[in-house]
Amino acid sequence: MALIPYDDRDGHIWMNGKLMPWRDCKVHFMTHALHYGGAVFEGVRCYNGQIFKINEHSQRLIDGCKIMDIKFDYTVEQVNQACIEAVRANNITDGYLRPLVWRGAEQIGVGATEAKTHFAVAAWDWPQYYKGDLLEKGIKVCTSKWRRPAPDTAPVHAKASGLYMICTISKHAAEKLGCNDALMLDYRGHVAELTSANLFMVKDGALHTPTPDCFLNGITRQTVIELAHQLGIPMHVRTIMPDEIKTADEFFATGTAAEITPIGQIDDTFYKVGPVTRKIREAYSALVRGGVVEKVA
Asked: Are 123 and 82 in contact (CB under 8 A)?
């Protein structure tokens, strides 16, 4: 299937307070964020024309800007409205939203106190990230040589664009080995996450997930923890060591894009898509398509 470039599409993008034709949304070469990574973004899902957990995503965007020292004066309600307008303008039913805040081209150099803040939201059709056999057999994962940084070396609790450099490198390396994604350890050598998704392990019917002290505490991750409690599945948030990978019964990944994605292999250890993974996936699907969500209409 031919790749459709993201700068050459029909539709509209909400940018700096107004809807603009998709192809006209440009930024200058001297944009500070392009040179120094000064941007914060969100990934948001829309199901049946409804935006899932938009308040949480909008608040995290605002919090991320504070962490990154990017002046951003929008309220949660204003960010929500921009997302809603982007969904409406593009007639999205099942899709994905990308809100992005970035420093502009007014100032170049490490310091950027005079650079203006820009804000845009794009929305497009994107029913599923992984499809077909991968959802029944699970994705293939290998361990990356790159590690998630310590919280005193990077703004690890912001969804900041610069933090994804090592994710891209890791995913490219994994794909060259025939894998779908990469497992990232943290700076201490503990199990952390995949390149753009949180991680859950199943052992003896109980769920275990790493403590998010140096990586993003994903909104889908938090939702799965809530679902586990509702379903009566024992839930443990704790340090997970790499040697536990070989003794687990099931693994799955969670994220706004990935949703609930089973893992069939990590390095040389194989897993079946087991009953706990399936139960969580079914509960999550039911929630996002029929639970408490923010309506666009």
From this structure: no
Q: Which of 26, 66, 71, 159 is catalytic?
A: 159
In the prediction, which pLDDT does 295 show?
40
Q: Are 28 and 105 in contact (CB under 8 A)?
A: yes
Q: One-letter amino acid identity for 98?
A: R
Per-residue pLDDT averaged across 98-120, rounded? 96
Residue 92 has pLDDT above 50, yes or no: yes
Which domains are present in the chain? 12-125 (3.30.470.10), 133-290 (3.20.10.10)
Please give the single-letter amino acid code of residue 244: E
Is the sign of the CA dihedral 81, 86, 90, 96 positive or negative?
negative
Query: Does 145 participate in catalysis according to the annotation?
Result: no
Q: Which two tokens stand for residue 132?
A: 């077909």
Task: Report the chain's C-alpha Rg in angstroms.
Answer: 19
What are the DSSP calls for 170-193, one per residue?
A: HHHHHHHTT-SEEEEEETTS-EEE
